[in-house]
Specification:
- It is a single chain.
- The chain is mostly helical.
- The chain has three domains: 4-76, no CATH class; 82-168, no CATH class; 175-315, no CATH class.
- The protein has 15 helices and two strands.
- Strands 1-2 form a two-stranded antiparallel ribbon.
- The radius of gyration is 22 Å and the shape is globular.
- The mean pLDDT is 86.
């Protein structure tokens, strides 16, 4: 059976490859820092499930120290020149979107059909993680399509992965770290503090007010934490479950789905989501580091309002 552990191994192999490519790149003066950072990160994926929490904690500390001491760097060379990339883009045109569009398509198909496939009475994939596993399979399929279409050198994918990860730097691990921080906040009882605040200030006799507080809280806490996965356990424990679900009988699945979308509205409006909002400005060399956020704010606010209305309409209809 394909489980989430297999996806961890796949990610670990990619990060290990990135570490090796960095180690061999003598043009990067901080290649040993990069090698150590991505190498340790690879270990957390390849062996993290078999190590103790203390050992994983030490690995995390090592990553922080490596990123803090002299920081990470980038190599001078690129796999292709700007002129070569532009010529390739003109040649392929809109066909370049085929691998990218294959990812959502295969993910949806896998989510729907993979859980129905069994071998000797056992499911082919872990039913609880079928969407994540389907996304990983879709990524592999998209990579295969890209390799067949473009016919690049065999090592091009890992070299490009290294180039992009070096450009993003430590921010690439931010979503995972913030999600873990959100889980720690939930265990520490931050959700209870949020619940107490909500009960003092929110008119509990109004389902719409509770829904609005949950959706806006998801967006605001995401702006603070930089990641909706970090905000979700706190806001759901503080407002979602006790008020939306238990008090007013809302559907938890609908609440969670639209709540996460509301959190992503916050992602669009915060520099804390560095991997989404700050890194693109650096890669595009925009003069205003907040340019992406400023453009996204109107869309985020409209989408948040739509999510509030949609949740209020759907969550209590069951």
């Amino acid at each position: 059976m394909i489980t989430l552990e297999h996806i961890y191994w796949l990610a670990g192999l990619m990060f290990a490859g990135v570490a090796i490519v960095n180690w061999r790149d003598r043009s990067n003066r901080r290649r040993f820092n990069n090698t150590a950072f991505w190498g340790v990160y690879a270990i957390t994926f390849l062996a993290g499930s078999y190590l103790s929490d203390l050992a994983n904690g030490f690995l995390l500390i090592v990553m922080v120290l490596v990123a803090s001491i002299r920081g990470l760097g980038q190599g001078a060379g690129e796999s292709a020149t700007r002129e070569e990339r532009e010529a390739s883009a003109r040649r392929w045109g809109n066909k370049l979107f085929v691998p990218a569009l294959a990812i959502p398509l295969v993910t949806v198909l896998g989510t729907v059909f993979l859980k129905r496939i069994t071998i000797n009475g056992l499911p082919l994939v872990d039913i609880k993680q079928v969407t994540v596993i389907s996304l990983a399979i879709a990524t592999i399929v998209a990579l295969a399509i890209g390799m067949i279409m473009l016919k690049p050198p065999l090592l091009a994918p890992i070299r490009e992965a290294r180039r992009l990860l070096d450009a993003v730097g430590w921010a690439a691990v931010l979503p995972q770290m913030l999600a873990a921080l959100g889980a720690l906040f939930a265990i520490a009882g931050v959700g209870n503090v949020v619940a107490g605040f909500a009960q003092r200030w929110i008119p509990l006799d109004s389902p719409f007010a509770v829904v609005a507080a949950y959706a806006v809280g998801m967006a605001v806490f995401t702006m603070i934490m930089g990641n909706a996965f970090a905000a979700f356990p706190v806001m759901t424990a503080g407002i979602g479950l006790p008020l939306v679900v238990q008090k007013f009988g809302g559907d938890p699945a609908i609440m969670a789905a639209i709540g996460m979308l509301s959190g992503f509205c916050g992602t669009l409006m915060t520099p804390m989501a560095a991997n989404f909002n700050i890194v693109p400005t650096a890669l595009l060399e925009l003069p205003d580091e907040n340019a992406v956020i400023k453009v996204q704010i109107p869309t985020a606010l409209m989408l948040l309002g739509a999510n509030i209305l949609l949740m209020n309409f759907l969550v209590f209809r069951h």
